[in-house]
Design a protein that fits this description.
By secondary structure, the protein is mainly beta. 24% of the residues are buried. 13% of the residues lie in helices and 39% in strands. The protein has a single domain, classed as Lipocalin (Beta Barrel), CATH 2.40.128.300. The N terminus is likely disordered. The two termini are 22 Å apart.
Length: 122
């Protein structure tokens, strides 16, 4: 049941955010790729959207008032998101078309977001 509710919430979030200007890059570019958290209890509640102009939107959780937006850098096997407010950065390892969250090399994420070290975004 939790999984069904999570999928419904995720679909609703993606639908509502499609028209949101913050989901577009600085120059109004369309998203290049959206990665969705794959977790038994919270499928689709957290997303990372990368834009072609190297901007991103990181939805930690629909209950979070914080929306991570900024610029990203891709280097070797790592993707690092730097927020525009300069207070947070989030590091992911790129592996087989997926993003693997690296908590040790990232800013702290609130515990209710269910994004732990090694969380997989597909």
């Amino acid at each position: 049941m939790k999984r069904i509710i999570g999928v419904i919430l995720a679909a609703t979030m993606l639908f509502l955010s499609a028209g949101c200007s913050s989901m577009r890059g600085v120059n109004g570019t369309k998203p290049m790729k959206t990665y969705v958290l794959v977790h038994e209890d919270s499928v689709g509640l957290s997303t990372v959207t990368l834009n072609r102009d190297h901007t991103f939107v990181f939805v930690l959780h629909p209950l979070s008032s914080y929306l991570g937006v900024g610029r990203y850098e891709s280097k070797d096997n790592a993707l690092v998101l730097f927020t525009d407010d300069g207070q947070n950065h989030y590091t992911f390892r790129k592996e087989s078309g997926k993003l693997i969250y690296d908590a040790e090399r990232s800013s702290e994420i609130p515990s209710y977001c269910d994004i732990s070290d090694g969380a997989v975004f597909e």
